[in-house]
Amino acid sequence: MDCVVELEKHKTVDSLHSPSSLRISRVREQRKSFSSWQGASPRRRSASIRLVGRHPDVYEPCDDSFALVDALLADKANLVERRPKLCLEVGCGSGYVITSLALILADECHAQFFATDISQTAAQVTRETLSAHGLQADVVVTDLVHGLEKRLAGSVDVLLFNPPYVPTPEHEVGAAGITATWAGGDRGRVVIDRMLTMVDSLLSSKGWFYMVTLTANNPSEICQIMKKKGFASRIVIQRYTEEENLHVLKFWREDLAFDYDYNAETGGGGTTPQSSLSSKMSRLAFWR
Amino acid sequence: MRLLTHNMLACNIKGVTKGFPLGIEHTRLETKESELNADFLRHIFPKLDWKAFHEAAQSVGVNNIPDQVEPVMLDDDEFLRKFHHALLEVHLEEGALICPETGRRFPVTKGVPNMLLNEDEV
C-alpha cells in the first residue's frame, strides 16, 4: 500500500480554526505516527522520511508536503522533458520537498537547487536533510526570496512553495517558533499573496510554479490573479483529508503553448488529477 | 554556500542601489567534489556576472579564473574544470557577506547566509 495512504490513516491535522497550541500538540502527536512507519522503504524517488532532519521549531513533512512531492512525482515525465537547470523552493522547512525534487531530477537534468526559509533553524535542518541524501544545494535564510530576486530574475525553471496557508489571526503570521510555519492570516492568504507578486519576475520563460493551497485560500481566485499576470494553471493533485482539502496548483506562462499528455499517477486514495484550469474555471465553483 | 549562490545574492536594504556584488569574508572554507556537468555550466555562464564571480573566486583563494571570458572558452575542458571548481566545489562555511554600499555584514553560519533585514532596513 502506498505510504501516503498509510499516512492518511494516521492523519492528525487539526481544524483550521484550532488554537495554535492545539496544532503544536498535534504536530508532535503526528511525529509519533511518523516514527511508527520509519522502517518503511522510501517510496519511489522522494526523500526518505527517516533521513529528514528534525527540530521542535521546524515543520515536519505532513499531508501538504506529501501532496506537493506526489504532484512532482506525478509530473516527473514532464519535468524531466523540460530539462530544468535552476530550481528554487521558498520556505523549505525540513527540506523534504527540495530534497525530493533533487532526487526526482537527479539522473536526468543536472540542475542546481536553491532553498530559502525565514528560519535559521529550518535552513540548517534542510541542509542536514540534503546532506543525509548525499545532495548539495545552497540554503539561504531570508524572507521569501529577498536578496535573490534581482539576480535570479527570469532564471528559475522550477519554483516550489508550500506556504503557511492556514487562516489565522493576523498577528500569528511570522510569529516565533513553529506557528509561523502554518499561520497564513486572513483566509490563509497573507504570505501567499506576497509570493504571487514575485512569481512572474522569478520564473524563466519555460518556468513552472507549484504551490500548495487549501480550499479556504480560494484557489480559484489565486488562479484568476495569476491569469491576469499571464499564467495558465492546473490542479496537479487534489487530496481530501479529514479536515483539509488540499490542492497542488501548477502555473506556467500562458503564451508558452504546449499541451502535454497528462498521465499523472494518482499517488494514493483521495487524489484526483485534473485537467487544465484555464479552460475549466467554471468547474471551480465547488471550491467555495 | 557556493559562489553560484554568491553570484545570485544582493543586498536589498531600503535605499541601497548598488547592493551587488557582496564582499566575502571567510573564516572557514570547504572544498567538496561534485560531478562536472558542461550543460549546466554553459546554461549558467550567460547569467553570471563574471566580474563578480572572478573577484569572489580570488577572495576565496581560487586564482585560476580568467578575468575576461568568451563563450568559445566553454568548449575547452580545462576551462570548464576550473569554472566548475570555483562555482560549485568551494563552499563558504563560516564568514560573512558584506554590502558594497553600506558595509552591512550578512553572517554565514554552517554554510548558510542570513540575509534577513532588521525592521529599519526594510
Automatic annotation (TrEMBL), chain A:
Residues 79-166 form the Methyltransferase small domain. GO terms for biological process: methylation; multicellular organismal-level iron ion homeostasis; translational termination. PROSITE patterns: N6_MTASE. Signal peptide: none annotated. InterPro entries: DNA_methylase_N6_adenine_CS, Euk-Arch_PrmC-MTase, PrmC-related, SAM-dependent_MTases_sf, Small_mtfrase_dom. One of its GO terms (molecular function) is protein methyltransferase activity. The keyword Methyltransferase applies. Gene3D superfamilies: Vaccinia Virus protein VP39. GO terms for cellular component: cytosol; eRF1 methyltransferase complex; nucleus. CDD domains: AdoMet_MTases. Keywords: Methyltransferase, Nucleus, S-adenosyl-L-methionine, Transferase. It is found in: Nucleus. Its main location: nucleus. Pfam families: MTS (PF05175). Belongs to the eukaryotic/archaeal PrmC-related family. This is Methyltransferase small domain-containing protein. It comes from Physcomitrium patens.
TrEMBL record, chain B:
Pfam families: Trm112p. One of its GO terms (cellular component) is tRNA (m2G10) methyltransferase complex. One of its GO terms (biological process) is maturation of LSU-rRNA. GO terms for molecular function: protein heterodimerization activity; tRNA methyltransferase activator activity. Belongs to the TRM112 family. Interacts with TRM9. This is Trm112p-like protein. The gene is LOC112287563.
